[in-house]
Design the sequence.
């Protein structure tokens, strides 16, 4: 049941990305281009998503269990650390260079875009680099 | 200056509401955060009993364009980034979202909806570096 719910959520998420314009990297770049011909549309995407999400997460936060019976697994960390800030900064550079973030890249992969294939493979490689660096303690955090 | 030719407030708002509805479905039904980088990242180091829902969510994203085309013509999209740049960008997005524990969906949609201080900071930072990157590429280096 959880897999079915996740599939439906992924499908609705993907349709939302397509309808909103997020699955068009050119449009994403147009939103990030404040100094050029700026396309503010994507602010409406975030606004709409957060409007629904705000109420959904308020309900979710009051429950110990999900509707299908599993545990409610919400993040609990509140600390702002270097990893969060530096990682997000690096992500933003990649996002700005390509107009792709992970969700829209997967949707474009699903529509058979060769550029999305290349991007997703590189993204997976980046995630594996992180996993390996963590395993060998490359960027050790101060205690 | 606003690019009125590409401005789509109605479709973007509606799409955003759907994205929010999808995040609501996943958290209320399954108790999970709809953060795409986290869902994919969890598949690279699979844990017992924690795989099927991730694959199912990704499958939903992948089939979305085919389902869309059953009802409407394909969306026009501009894929104008070169392959070399895409490789660099993909690696940066992979590394950055792993260290930053999230992307536009996990932090930008779910985290801000939860009023998480970490997600507010993360979203501000990646928007800022995203703006800065496009500024440098288009207006300093003068490429597309």
Sequence:
């Amino acid at each position: 049941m959880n897999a079915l719910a996740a599939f439906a959520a992924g499908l609705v998420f993907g349709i939302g990305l397509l309808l909103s314009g997020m699955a068009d990297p050119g449009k994403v770049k147009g939103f990030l281009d404040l100094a050029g011909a700026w396309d503010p549309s994507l602010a409406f995407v975030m606004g709409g998503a957060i409007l629904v999400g705000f109420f959904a997460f308020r309900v979710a936060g009051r429950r110990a269990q999900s509707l299908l019976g599993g545990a409610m697994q919400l993040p609990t960390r509140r600390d702002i650390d270097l990893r969060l800030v530096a990682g997000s900064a690096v992500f933003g550079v990649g996002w700005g260079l390509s107009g792709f973030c992970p969700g829209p890249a997967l949707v474009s992969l699903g529509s058979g875009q060769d550029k999305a294939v290349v991007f997703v493979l590189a993204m997976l490689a980046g995630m594996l680099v992180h996993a390996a660096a963590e395993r060998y303690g490359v960027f050790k955090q101060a205690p | 200056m606003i690019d009125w030719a590409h401005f789509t407030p109605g479709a973007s708002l509606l799409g955003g509401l759907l994205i929010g509805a999808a995040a609501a479905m996943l958290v209320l039904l399954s108790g999970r955060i709809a953060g795409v980088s986290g869902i994919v990242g969890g598949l690279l180091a699979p844990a017992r009993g924690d795989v099927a829902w991730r694959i199912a969510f990704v499958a939903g994203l992948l089939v979305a364009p085919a389902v869309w085309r059953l009802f409407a013509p394909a969306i026009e999209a501009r894929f104008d980034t070169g392959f070399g740049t895409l490789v660099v960008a993909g690696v940066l997005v992979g590394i950055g979202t792993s260290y930053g524990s999230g992307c536009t969906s996990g932090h930008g949609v779910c985290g801000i909806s939860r009023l998480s201080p970490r997600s507010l900071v993360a979203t501000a930072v990646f928007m800022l570096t995203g703006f800065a990157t496009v500024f440098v590429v288009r207006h300093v280096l003068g490429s597309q």
In short: Chain B touches chain A through 112 residues (CB under 8 Å).
